[in-house]
Amino acid sequence: MNCKYITWFLFSAGILLLTACADFLQEQPKDRLPDTGTFNDMQELYLNGVASLYNYMGGYSDSQGLQGTGRGVYDLNTFTTDEAMMPTRGGDWFDGGFWQGLYLHKWGTDNDAIRATWEYLYKVVGLANLSLAKMDAFQQAHPDADLAAYRAEVRALRALFYYHLMDLFGRMPLVLSPAPSTKEIVQQPRSKSYAFIVDELLSALPLLPEVPSNRHGSYYGRITRPVVFFLLAKLALNAEIYSDDDWTDKTRPEGKAIYFNWGGKQLNAWEATIAWCDSLTAMGYTLSDDYAENFAVFNENSSENIFVIPMNKYLYTNQMIYLFRSRHYNHAAAYGLGGENGACATLETLHTFGYGTAEADPRFDYCFYADTVYDLSGRPVRLDNGETLVYYPDKVALDVTDTPYEKNAGARMKKYAVDKTATKDGKLMENDIVLFRYADVLLMKSEALVRNGQNGDTELNRVRERVKAPHRTATLQHILDERLLELVWEGWRRQDLVRFGLFTRAYSYRPPLEKEANGYTTVFPIPEKIRSLNKNLLQNPGY
Question: Is residue 310 classed as helix, strand or coil in its secondary structure?
């Protein structure tokens, strides 16, 4: 990237966007497209102004990418909840108290991972702003060029990253210029950012192609109309949270009184969620016959996946570390891969799945390694001393140091199929990382129906029927449970618990913090290192 476009690396008022220009010159990842700094024709405009932005959906280092790496968006949405934990195992996984801090909600205002996540998300916002500015300049030089579709795609991509910023941080600056002045960097109420994101997506929607994004072709991994419909449904489902400018006063707006314009009608939040979910059904999305197909090696043919991070060890540098950091060393070695013996399910997750009971959910075996561990040929995996490796799911604790289960406590992540040809210890694999899928659409619709006073049984039980689980009545509790059963390890748990008002409750090994009942930890703090650069940025209440 040309250094003359890096003047916006550091917003003078304090939003750190990128590392120094020299850092970009130190590495030339194979999936990074060069930016010449000019758009001479439509092909250059697409490559440098649109395609290059997708390099940042995934990542290969901490806090980069929407999923696949550690200490970023995914970890902040997963290890802060009752879904998963990273137990301290002797000298492993204490890391200065970082993982325990996430689980206990003791992350503080100087947390490096939270700051790096803020910087990453704003980095992509800044790059999108730069692309839009270059498109404007190109339009002036080429007034006959039709840039509407490219502009819509970049605006929708920027809205996606603003969605994550709003979800994680609540109040934030809305920056629409590639080189903003101090006066332009103003913290907005959450409701204003929310309205902006929805409006941007609605404006972009009709200009985007109605084609799948998860299939090989020109739009593989790109934001298309189905991706925007999913995101709009997610935004409407969380309308009570995102419309609330004070999440610490124990009140929130009512979803039936929050309205969206769609199809010439005024729809409340739940009706809008239903309508946008139905739009995806009308496009032909359906549940895959086999649950595991969505996470298989070469899963591009899934009829269910809506938005993915493409993975190809020969073309991209995107990494997927979640299986790597969960499996025991010997377990991973038995597959010819590497492992870090870390992440596992919590006791609450075991309870929801019915582990150890006659009513255990069929998806437990799809999603977790538990009990005796086998290699790909069906032989028991051995420890260094010759004993069989056994995982003990119910022996998990925040710290298992100096217990008999220090190295084998906890059920481990299994959700993505083993790619025997994976490289870099298994982190460069051929399974695309699933961001949005149709099962979530059905569960969103079920929940919206129930919250709107209607019956959501059909949608809930379509998801359960796929894995031959018995029918349930669509109550809010059953829907929340189903979201964990179906979507475990997919990065939705924090958002779900916040929406259901349960994020700050006590659970195993996590007592609530003092004053946490007011909900202040449902958003993360504005990083102090960012605030030190911009005195106008106010800290979120409670921190």
Answer: coil
Q: What is the dihedral of CA 466, 469, 475, 477, to 10 degrees?
A: -110
Please name every residue paired with 187 in a beta bridge, in sequence order, or none if there are none. Answer: 173
* Core vs surface per residue 241-258: b (16+ CB within 10 A) or e: bbbbeebbeeebbebeeb
For residue 232, the 8-state DSSP code is H
pTM for this prediction? 0.94
- Res 182: pLDDT: 75
What's CA 171's distance to the chain center, in Å?
19
CA distances from 375 to 325, 370, 380, 427 (A): 17, 13, 6, 18
CB contact at 8 A, 132 and 200: no
Counting as low any pLDDT under 70, the low residues of the chain are: 1-38
How far apart, in whole angstroms, are the C-alpha atoms of residue 361 and residue 370? 14
Alpha carbon distance, N-terminus to C-terminus of the chain: 38
Q: What six digits make up the tokens of 148?
A: 């509407």
Residue (of 273, 314, 411, 399) closest to 354 by Cα position = 411
Q: Which residues does 22 contact at the CB level (< 8 Å), separation at least 6? A: none
Q: Which residues contact 212 (CB under 8 A, 6 or more apart)?
A: 219, 224, 226, 306
Structure tokens at 316: 């991209």
| pLDDT for the residue numbered 168 | 99
Q: What is the DSSP letter of 380?
A: B
Q: What is the mean pLDDT of the chain?
A: 93
> HEC string of 383-399?
CCCCCECEEEHHHCCCE
In the chain, the percentage of residues whose pLDDT exceeds 90 is 91
Is residue 326 helix, strand or coil?
A: coil
Rounded to an integer, what distance in angstroms lies between the CA atom of residue 171 and that of residue 399?
34
Q: Which residue has the tokens 């009140």?
A: 251
Longest dimension (CA), the chain: 73
Q: Which positions ≥6 away from 516 have C-beta within 8 Å?
A: 105, 504, 542
Structure tokens at 373: 């561990």
Q: Rg of the Cα trace of the chain? A: 23
pLDDT tens figures, 332-362: 999 999 999 999 999 999 999 999 999 999 9
The H or E element spanning position 265 is strand 265-268
Query: What is d(CA 274, CA 267) in angstroms, rounded to the nearest whole number?
Result: 10
Write the DSSP string, 277-322.
HHHHHHTT----SSGGGGGSTT-TT-SSEEEEE---TTT------T
